[in-house]
């Protein structure tokens, strides 16, 4: 906002007006032919001397500063510069000659020297004159010197009071050295640039507009902060809940407390027992397995307790941070509100004062004009009086009387005009005083604003600190979430393994007892046989008892050993046959191009409820399962490529898909996706948690590919690898790595970062995501590559849309797709392969009533989008399994994105994740039926993307 207060000074202003006034008074005195003429002449002389001295002093001061101004002047123009403050003189010298008084922004040095005078080009203290203001440049364009001289000659002398008043005014106004000698013929104009007072245009200070917008920004930030509050409600549970979990995580009492073993192996590595092993084999397996599991459980226990400690610590930190955060936030909000209110009030008052100042200025101008008019009429009357005086001698006696009367009338009129003039002067003076006091008020307000600004800066600093502590807090929360997830998963798996172990133990015990009974029966049979044989041989019992019995026992032992060996051989053959069958099955699947379907049931979790009976029964062949029917129906049986039990760990699962992943390096487009109801373990399967045993397929796949790429270097293969990560949220594609540079470093979000992406097709008809950020994964240095991958996963986890639902505290509200783009070239053969690995974690299919998403508008919208895209995926599989000509890939972003993998060129594998609870059995049944349809899809043989340049 820029306002300019314009003060016009004509002959009627106190400075010049007073001078004119005194001149007129002198003339009047001389007109009256007073006897004090000579004395007054002396006074006048003294006054002129005094004026000359002042002028000389003023000129000498002004010389340095005004020389450049004078150089620019017309030769017959007298330039008078008034500037008494030394610092401004130098600045005046630098400034071009101007007709106006101009204010400038004070330099920091000026501000330090005279803090009270910064805001504008005029004095802000009530008793200061313009002379005190070091930033004022005054240049008055006057008439030529002749005119001044003639005016000086016209001065007839001053009364003592007028001289005193003139002196006071000259001192008060300060520009007297110049003004006393110049009688302007034109009205000079003084301009005050008022901007600085209102806008505070010092370089260091923000413009009012900018500050307003800053305040608005502050308010918005506050709103944003407040709008973030619900998210906090979705953060991990408080320590009480953690304690509750701890309670749930206790191992079953039957679990062995110590079992030393010389060579412990992972629980997950343990091969499943063959269904028909011999008694000895089973006993041996049982004991070695028991000791192995105990060691694993001990290790897991100690890991859990370490994790628990870390979680407790993070919880404590979190509590402390949130306790210190709340009062700070409240104080800041209070201060912000008070600041905004106070500032608005002050700005309104300043506006009011400025309006009052402007009105006063206008009034002063009007009075000055009136004053000028009065001066003119006094001059005219004086001239008339003079004329009358000169003509009086030649006039006749009758005319003399008239002239006398005329003079009397004139004198009366002059007296009236003079008193009028005096009144006006008084009015002008009081208006000036008003103005000065208004300026003082404005100054006080400005100081108030300054202090408020300081407060505001403090608040900003506080806010910065608060933000920093907030981000620290959220980092701690993320860590806590990761650790909690890892701990929950580890505990669940441990419980499942322990349950498995218990089951195996009791089964083995029962087997043992049965075999003992059998063995005892067999023993008695054999004894009976021996006695029969003995009696048949007809030998003496005393002699033969020892020798024959020994022989028979040896023969029998040999027979038993022979049978055991045969059994072992047959078992081995069975195992080999089984492996061959699976390999052939895989080969057939590959040739037919089937989408492979693996089913994984997750273990029970602490918040699954008290009932721990599973609705799913996994058969020992590792491919079949049955699920309890609804409302007492018969169980439903299903068969898939692989069925994992709840105790199957991440490593076992990855072993089964590693070959599949490997084919991405051979130039195939491979797609793995996890499907299932919310909370069934899709994210656990794909991403997993932490950096240890709970890592999922994505980190393990990248590690394997890095290891394989390194091994292939010996065969002259060089690979490059780029990772990208996106999510499909409410049918929109979003880049989860927008905050990452291609080298893996993070960057702040700016206006140019595009988060929304689109799917396009290239010249070969292959789809690609336009504008997606790709992060290089270092293939040369494996450790660095793994670190880069961890950074990618962390950035994506931060950016992903998750929320708490009734069924999962960290439910994915979007489909996420991790893409690994691989390019390998062989120097020797000139072969180039281009493979891709798409690892897709679908959002959970869910029923609104169970997930509780229906009660929240945003959750409802998300759920509708999720269910719609999953139903589109189902339509695509239906069309593919029916062999329809048209497959509706374009009906959703998900199917459009996966089109290449699902239309025959690539290899696809689907994980169906199931929850074991009885409450989830109907959702599990739906998922299994969906999976059965997918298993029937035949895509045709996958195609390798290879080019041969030699
Ligand atoms: N096989 C498993 N072993 C141990 N814990 C598991 C297993 N599967 C899932 N969990 C645990 O179950 C919880 C829910 O799993 P997860 O978040 O992976 O489900 P989801 O299917 O991805 O759910 P949503 O669709 O809502 O995102 C997690 O705490 C996870 O650690």
TrEMBL record:
<dbReference type="Pfam" id="PF00225">
    <property type="entry name" value="Kinesin"/>
</dbReference>
<feature type="coiled-coil region">
    <location>
        <begin position="297"/>
        <end position="324"/>
    </location>
</feature>
<protein>
    <recommendedName>
        <fullName>Kinesin motor domain-containing protein</fullName>
    </recommendedName>
</protein>
<comment type="similarity">
    <text>Belongs to the TRAFAC class myosin-kinesin ATPase superfamily. Kinesin family.</text>
</comment>
<feature type="compositionally biased region" description="Low complexity">
    <location>
        <begin position="103"/>
        <end position="116"/>
    </location>
</feature>
<feature type="compositionally biased region" description="Polar residues">
    <location>
        <begin position="71"/>
        <end position="85"/>
    </location>
</feature>
<feature type="compositionally biased region" description="Polar residues">
    <location>
        <begin position="276"/>
        <end position="295"/>
    </location>
</feature>
<dbReference type="InterPro" id="IPR036961">
    <property type="entry name" value="Kinesin_motor_dom_sf"/>
</dbReference>
<keyword id="KW-0493">Microtubule</keyword>
<feature type="compositionally biased region" description="Low complexity">
    <location>
        <begin position="256"/>
        <end position="266"/>
    </location>
</feature>
<keyword id="KW-0547">Nucleotide-binding</keyword>
<feature type="compositionally biased region" description="Polar residues">
    <location>
        <begin position="178"/>
        <end position="187"/>
    </location>
</feature>
<feature type="region of interest" description="Disordered">
    <location>
        <begin position="60"/>
        <end position="134"/>
    </location>
</feature>
<dbReference type="InterPro" id="IPR027417">
    <property type="entry name" value="P-loop_NTPase"/>
</dbReference>
<keyword id="KW-0175">Coiled coil</keyword>
<feature type="region of interest" description="Disordered">
    <location>
        <begin position="1"/>
        <end position="46"/>
    </location>
</feature>
<feature type="coiled-coil region">
    <location>
        <begin position="428"/>
        <end position="493"/>
    </location>
</feature>
<dbReference type="GO" id="GO:0005524">
    <property type="term" value="F:ATP binding"/>
</dbReference>
<feature type="region of interest" description="Disordered">
    <location>
        <begin position="178"/>
        <end position="296"/>
    </location>
</feature>
<feature type="binding site">
    <location>
        <begin position="676"/>
        <end position="683"/>
    </location>
    <ligand>
        <name>ATP</name>
    </ligand>
</feature>
<keyword id="KW-0505">Motor protein</keyword>
<feature type="compositionally biased region" description="Basic and acidic residues">
    <location>
        <begin position="36"/>
        <end position="46"/>
    </location>
</feature>
<keyword id="KW-0067">ATP-binding</keyword>
<dbReference type="InterPro" id="IPR001752">
    <property type="entry name" value="Kinesin_motor_dom"/>
</dbReference>
<dbReference type="GO" id="GO:0005874">
    <property type="term" value="C:microtubule"/>
</dbReference>
<feature type="domain" description="Kinesin motor">
    <location>
        <begin position="594"/>
        <end position="937"/>
    </location>
</feature>
<feature type="compositionally biased region" description="Low complexity">
    <location>
        <begin position="60"/>
        <end position="70"/>
    </location>
</feature>
<dbReference type="InterPro" id="IPR027640">
    <property type="entry name" value="Kinesin-like_fam"/>
</dbReference>
<dbReference type="GO" id="GO:0003774">
    <property type="term" value="F:cytoskeletal motor activity"/>
</dbReference>
């Amino acid at each position: 906002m820029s306002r300019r207060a314009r003060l016009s000074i004509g002959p009627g202003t106190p400075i010049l007006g007073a001078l004119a006034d005194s001149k007129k008074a002198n003339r009047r005195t001389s007109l009256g032919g007073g006897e004090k003429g000579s004395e007054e002449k002396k006074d006048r002389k003294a006054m002129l001397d005094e004026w000359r001295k002042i002028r000389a002093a003023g000129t000498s001061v002004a010389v340095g500063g005004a020389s450049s101004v004078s150089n620019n002047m017309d030769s017959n123009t007298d330039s008078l510069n008034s500037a008494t403050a030394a610092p401004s003189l130098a600045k005046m010298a630098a400034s071009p000659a101007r007709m106006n008084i101009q204010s400038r922004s004070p330099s920091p040095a000026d501000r330090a020297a005279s803090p009270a005078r910064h805001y504008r080009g005029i004095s802000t203290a009530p008793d200061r004159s313009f002379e005190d203001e070091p930033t004022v440049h005054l240049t008055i364009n006057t008439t030529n010197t002749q005119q001044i001289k003639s005016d000086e000659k016209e001065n007839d002398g001053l009364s003592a009071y007028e001289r005193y008043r003139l002196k006071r005014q000259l001192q008060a106004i300060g520009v007297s050295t110049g003004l006393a000698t110049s009688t302007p013929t034109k009205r000079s104009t003084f301009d005050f640039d008022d901007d600085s007072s209102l806008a505070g245009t010092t370089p260091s200070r923000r413009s009012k507009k900018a500050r307003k917008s800053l305040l608005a920004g502050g308010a918005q930030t506050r709103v944003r902060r407040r709008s973030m509050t619900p998210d906090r409600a979705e953060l991990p549970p408080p320590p009480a809940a953690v304690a509750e979990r701890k309670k749930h995580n206790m191992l079953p009492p039957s679990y062995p407390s110590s079992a030393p073993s010389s060579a412990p192996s992972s629980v997950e590595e343990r091969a499943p027992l063959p269904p028909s092993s011999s008694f000895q084999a089973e006993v041996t397996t049982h004991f070695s397995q028991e000791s192995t599991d105990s060691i694993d459980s001990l290790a897991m226990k100690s890991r859990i307790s370490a994790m628990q400690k870390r979680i407790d610590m993070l919880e404590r930190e979190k509590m402390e941070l949130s306790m210190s955060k709340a009062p700070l936030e409240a104080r800041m909000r209070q201060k912000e509100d008070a600041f905004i209110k106070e500032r608005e009030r002050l700005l309104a008052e300043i506006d009011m004062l400025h309006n009052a100042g402007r009105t006063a200025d206008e009034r002063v101008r009007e009075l000055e004009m009136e004053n000028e008019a009065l001066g003119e009429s006094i001059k005219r009357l004086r001239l008339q009086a003079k004329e009358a005086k000169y003509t009086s001698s030649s006039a006749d006696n009758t005319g003399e009387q008239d002239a006398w009367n005329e003079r009397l009338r004139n004198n009366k009129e002059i007296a009236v005009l003079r008193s009028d003039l005096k009144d006006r002067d008084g009015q002008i003076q009081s208006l000036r005083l008003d103005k000065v006091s208004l300026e003082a008020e404005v100054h006080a307000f400005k100081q108030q604003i300054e202090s408020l600004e300081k407060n505001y800066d403090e608040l900003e600093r506080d806010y910065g600190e608060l933000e920093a502590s907030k981000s620290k807090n959220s980092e701690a929360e993320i860590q806590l979430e990761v650790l909690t997830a890892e701990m929950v998963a580890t505990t669940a798996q441990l419980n499942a393994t322990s349950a498995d172990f218990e089951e195996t133990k009791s089964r083995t015990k029962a087997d043992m007892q049965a075999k003992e009974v059998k063995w005892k029966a067999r023993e008695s049979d054999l004894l009976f046989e021996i006695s029969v044989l003995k009696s048949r041989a007809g030998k003496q019992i005393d002699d033969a008892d020892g020798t024959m019995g020994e022989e028979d026992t040896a023969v029998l032992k040999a027979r038993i050993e022979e049978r055991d060996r045969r059994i072992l051989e047959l078992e081995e053959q069975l195992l080999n046959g089984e492996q061959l069958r699976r390999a052939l099955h895989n080969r057939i699947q590959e040739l037919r191009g089937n989408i492979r379907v693996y089913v994984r049931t997750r273990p029970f979790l602490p918040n699954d409820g008290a009932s721990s009976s599973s609705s799913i029964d996994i058969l020992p062949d590792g491919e079949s399962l049955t699920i309890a029917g609804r409302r007492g129906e018969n169980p439903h049986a299903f068969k898939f490529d692989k069925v994992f039990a709840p105790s199957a760990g991440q490593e076992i699962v990855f072993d089964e898909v590693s070959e599949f992943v490997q084919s991405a390096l051979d130039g195939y487009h491979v797609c793995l996706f996890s499907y299932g109801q919310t909370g069934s373990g899709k994210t656990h399967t794909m991403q997993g948690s932490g950096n240890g045993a709970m890592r999922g397929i994505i980190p393990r796949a990248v590690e394997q590919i890095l290891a394989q790429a390194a091994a292939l270097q010996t065969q002259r293969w060089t690979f490059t690898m780029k990772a990208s990560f996106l999510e499909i949220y409410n049918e929109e594609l979003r880049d989860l790595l927008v905050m990452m540079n291609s080298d893996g470093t993070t960057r702040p979000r700016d206006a140019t970062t595009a988060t929304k992406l689109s799917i396009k097709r290239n010249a070969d008809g292959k789809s690609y995501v336009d504008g997606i950020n790709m992060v290089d994964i270092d293939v040369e240095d494996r450790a660095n590559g793994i670190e880069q991958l961890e950074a990618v996963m962390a950035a994506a986890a931060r950016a992903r849309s998750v929320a708490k639902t009734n069924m999962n505290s960290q439910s994915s509200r979007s489909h996420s797709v991790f893409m690994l783009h691989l390019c390998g070239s062989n120097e020797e053969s000139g072969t180039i392969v281009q493979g891709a690995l798409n690892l897709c974690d679908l959002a959970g299919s869910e029923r609104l009533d169970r997930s509780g998403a229906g009660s929240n508008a945003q959750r409802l919208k998300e759920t509708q989008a999720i269910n719609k895209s999953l139903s589109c995926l189902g339509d695509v599989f239906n069309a593919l399994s029916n062999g329809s000509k048209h497959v509706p890939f374009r009906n959703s972003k998900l199917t459009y994105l996966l089109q290449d993998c699902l239309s025959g060129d690539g290899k696809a594998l689907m994980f169906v994740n199931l929850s074991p609870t009885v409450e989830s059995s109907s959702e599990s049944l739906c998922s299994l039926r969906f999976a059965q349809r997918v298993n029937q899809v035949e895509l045709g043989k996958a195609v390798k993307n290879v080019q041969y340049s030699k």
